[in-house]
Amino acid sequence: MSIPQIEAVGVILGMIGLFAWDRFRYDLVAVSALIVAVVLGVVPADRAFSGFSNPVIIIIASALVVGRAIARSGSIDAVARRLLSPLHSASAEIGVLAGCVAFLSAFMKNVGTLGIFMPIAIQTARRGGRPISAYLMPLAFGSLIGGTMTLIGTSPNLLISTIRQQTTGQPFHLFDFIPVGLPLTCLALVFLTFGWRLIPRGRQGQAAAEDRFEIGHSLTELRLGKDSPLINRTVEDLEAMGEEELSVTAVIRGSRRSIPSRHWQLSEGDILLVQADPLLAKKVADKARLEVVGADAPVFAGSKSDELETGEAVVLPDSPLVGKTAKTMHLRHRFEVNLLSVSRDGQRIGTRLHQHRFRAWDIAVLQGRQSSLSEALISLHCLPLADRGLGLGRPRDGIVPVAILAVALLLAALGLVPVAIAFLAAAVAVTLLRHVSLKEAYDAVDWPVIVMLGALIPVGESLKNTGADDVLAGLLASGGAQLPGPVALGMVLTVAMLLTPLLHHAAAVLVMGPVAATVAARLGYNPDPFLMAVALGASCDFLTPIGHQNNAIVMAPGGYRFGDYWRLGLPLSVLVVLAGTPLILWTWPLR
């Protein structure tokens, strides 16, 4: 090996060591590896930031923004709950949840899909009195295997497409992965439906942020609009939507206030005083198409770019609100905020919101423009609480974000526009149409992953640029030459799968991809099946919590230990190798 080749391999090995040590965050490790590679000269200085201009970066960031808009729309949540409602066994619920996550992960970034379904899975487990740990690991594994079905489902598929373009001049297309990913996903889902019993029992996870901070029963006022399905229905029907955790304490009809029975019939224009956690009130309001009284009041000033925000805050003892009401304080006109909900140490509040007389330590949900909300909280001496993403007072977006994603997929699948352009346009569309705010759009992007990928792409290319990939490929090819083609392909798949826990899954592709392509060339085979094997192996890290962020995301809520993953993940990994290898060969012949 030449000195540049030794340096390139040394940088990669050092990076692997730091990833495995897990002392420093992965994006810092990747940037450090890039800097060392530039200093050594194995990455030219003028190519150091080429990774950030790669279309993969745009696709991933845009897919996360579109995914946030779809999550906010509530349409997927509604479909999932409808599918789960007739089920009563843990296996059926886990199978349906994992299936929803898997098939949605084919069209969204799998980390975003997992984020949508985790709260549903946790609530489903609690409602059935079952351990949350039985649900979350199958959910994470389902999101990983589901991402293998399309180009955009997971980062390894996007990165291997880039490597194929460098190798053959043509990238993989959007649905090239389905013949392998779809049947493999179906097999994996059957296994997860019953295999969840391999997860160790007795694991107790940490509560989610919204569960650690329980607001309790807040007073929120909801109005029945003309489109609400609750018109001519009863109070009991509304409370059933809240699964007995929401109660209607009063109904305002015209100038008359009544305390309703469960059989009280609702009419258009009724104002309902409900006691519930604001998160639950938001969900019920979306589902029943109820208007939050006082939301989006037209008195707010500000430009169209100055978007509305909703936040929770504690009324401190020295607040000018103490002893006053929202009406007497003129909150809208003096402070440019709306009062949407209020709670007092779990007590029921019997007055209208604008008549509620504040005390110290009351918790208020306030709505205001970005430019005025923080300033108002300071002026009112209110302590802001952690952002739970309430969205109270913001209307549900329905299926519009889903339709935008479908159009982007169609345009990309037909080859009318490049995938990166299609997804960037979709992200811009959901932002312009206010399905996500600009702040939410930027928050949706996983910036540490973006930085890591941008740094790793040129580091991975250094193996090819210095010829180190030929040397490494020669070592693998010498062993593979003595093996039948299918066995050599299975070996590459297994190596990629075993390398992923040591590296990030994206780094595993960037390291193994060029090597696998060279191995195929040395053995006289078509490079496509070997590239597919690398992408599949890097996507299917079921052995540890560190190879993919989805496994790490469920670790604390599920209460898992490091060694728990292989109990369910090892047999699933064997299934992927045994079934994935012939599926790849059937779709992408060796010659």
**Rough outline:** elongated
Estimate the mean pLDDT confidence: 85
* Rg measurement, Å: 27 Å
- Tell me the structural class: alpha+beta
Query: Cα distance, first to last residue?
Result: 30 Å
Roughly what percent helix? Answer: 55-70%
> What is the percentage of strand-forming residues?
5-15%
Secondary structure: number of strands? 9
* Major pleated sheet: 9 strands, antiparallel
Unreliable spans: 209-215
Number of helical regions:
26
In short:
The protein has 26 helices and 9 strands.
Task: Walk me through what this model shows.
The chain is an alpha+beta fold. The chain is 56% helix and 9% strand. The protein has 26 helices and 9 strands. Strands 1, 2, 3, 4, 5, 6, 7, 8 and 9 form a 9-stranded antiparallel beta sheet that branches. The radius of gyration is 27 Å and the shape is elongated. The protein starts with a helix and ends with a helix.
List keywords for this structure.
591 residues, alpha+beta, nine-stranded antiparallel beta sheet, 26 helices, 9% strand
List the helices and strands and how they pair.
Layout: H1 3-21, H2 26-40, H3 55-73, H4 75-84, H5 90-105, H6 110-127, H7 133-146, H8 155-168, H9 178-195, H10 209-212, E1 218-224, H11 235-241, E2 247-253, E3 256-258, E4 271-276, H12 278-288, E5 290-292, E6 308-315, H13 326-329, H14 331-335, E7 337-343, E8 363-369, H15 370-379, E9 382-384, H16 400-413, H17 419-432, H18 438-444, H19 447-466, H20 468-480, H21 485-499, H22 505-523, H23 527-539, H24 549-553, H25 555-558, H26 565-587
Antiparallel strand pairs: 1-4, 1-5, 1-7, 2-3, 2-4, 6-8, 6-9, 7-8
